[in-house]
Amino acid sequence: MWAMVAKEFRQLRRDRRTVAMMIVLPVVLLVVFGYAANFDVHDIPTVVVGPGARQAAASLRPPFHVTDVAPAAGEAAAQSKLQDGKAVVAVVTGGTGVQVLMDGTQLFSVETAEGALAKLSASTRAAGLPGAGRAGGSWVRQQILYNPKLTTSWVMVPGLAGLILVFVGTLITSLGVVRERQTGTLEQLAVMPLRARDVIAGKIAPYLMVAAVDLTAIVLIGMGLFGVPFTGNVATFALGAGLFLLVTLGMGVLISTVSQNQGQAIQLAFMIMLPQVLLSGLIFPVTSMAAGVRWISYVLPLTYFIQISRGVMLKATPISALGQPLGLLALLAVVVLGLAIFRFRRDLAPSGRRSRDAKPRDRGSEAVAA
Amino acid sequence: MTWGLENVRVGFGHRIALDGVTVPAGPASVTVVVGGDGAGKSTCLKTLVGLVRPQAGSVRRPAKERIGYVPATAGLYADLTVQQNLDFSASAYRLPAGQRGQREQQLLERTGLAGVRRRLGGQLSGGMQRKLAVALALLHAPDLLVLDEPTTGVDPVSRAELWRLISAAAAQGTAVVVATTYVNEAARAASVVLLEAGKALASGSPDAILRGVPGVVGTAAHRGGGGRPDPLSWRRGVGWRVWAPDGELPAGVERAAPDFDDAVVVAELAAKAGR
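ok -> structure tokens follow
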């Protein structure tokens, strides 16, 4: 048995990545996810509108975080703030009483807000503040928009669609490219009269098409099985999805360029996919994460795709309000794809370094005759 | 010399892989690069097709469209059928649609693969895979055909078929460069480069290499015949061969005309002695 144990340890020592996965990763994951995994909401972006806006804003205590007070604005303006994701709660004063609108796509924020409102109404009633004690009922009318029953699947399906695409895009693409390297066919492609960009585009395009079909299927099935609404613009969704797919496939290619075999590619792909599950806002609200790990969320493409897909599908958020996530996805796409193409091109280019001390006249010459 | 390497040096990091190697590749002729594992054969061929950049010396090769290359590893897609492999190569080399069918049929018949068009590349036997790889490299009738150990691990019948294919290509004007570990395959080439540790120990036609064997070679029935030290004798068939660099064979050792196998061994012994 000792012969086996010794051999196994020797092999493990050669495979640094596996050792890293076994020792370093669990520690990092525990620390990161420990700080990220937080259902408690301490900060609910709130807008207050209507004639009594200033007074109402003054009576709001944390977790409500008043970001905007607009006495001149009305319900429509408040609603568009929620639709655009600028606020989770909108307090509309004036008319017959106070109305509180909440964005039902933010499950945990809304649940926290409901609890806080109940406490607030009790205390305001006791203090005899204006609007309190009307007909002995609640001083406010609460209304949850976009997801009135706070159905979990409505919020999860748009995000899960993205997560599934991360799996398909990153893993399958990296495996497809690394297979060419492992079997030696990549070398042959480099000798064939194909331009590097044709090889790269030809390698990525099929996966892009498959992933697009995949996404359509997932969204349709989500709508059919879970009754998830699709209220927004399909083209806006398609734009966001397209950019997101480019980032995901780019990551797949990038992984393949630093992996020698399929095993390594799978390991790396998982290291990239795992954080996206927990840090993208799919499960835990990004705003509730400790600041030290929250920045990781902001470099993950899934974070932005979830903002776009939830916004478009559930809230009919217009493209004008999605400029930030769309722009950042585009930026990520350029950076990741650019890096992937740069590294992939190097695989297709001749290897072997010119010696550092070689004089210019000493350099090798290559003549290609027609 | 139309194509080929001239005084090429290749280095990877601090390691010199090729040191002043010249490999001619003339049209309608076969050049064989022979040497043991790690001698630099693959690096030689990769430099010739442009996969590796030389540090010094010059490389001449036709444009990519006119090169056919089979690497030592695969040369085909294991998860595509024989026909799909042909289709891919044909379109990558932009073979006109009108020529495809006839050319494919011709190559498949010559390689004996006509009956397995629908079989997956990975399900072919080792010999069939190598034949398909060479057929794929020949599909566009290249000016320069570069084959990295096409016959290693292949049974004798398939080896003969592969060599028939290679010779036919040369007969039609293609310049062929083949790397091999089998010395006997070098004997039939127009030109041979004997590679060892990145250096060319000998090169030229097999006849020229034979004529250039230094000293004399003899045969002995027993090991170390005539008290000759072991390092200069080697087993050959049932007997032994002995090399006398100074031309004086020990008593009891009969002088023999060296063949190509002997020439290769002597070249290696001479290189070791010179070091």
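The interface with chain B takes residues 183-185, 187-188, 190-194, 350-355, 358, 362-370 of chain A (CB under 8 Å).
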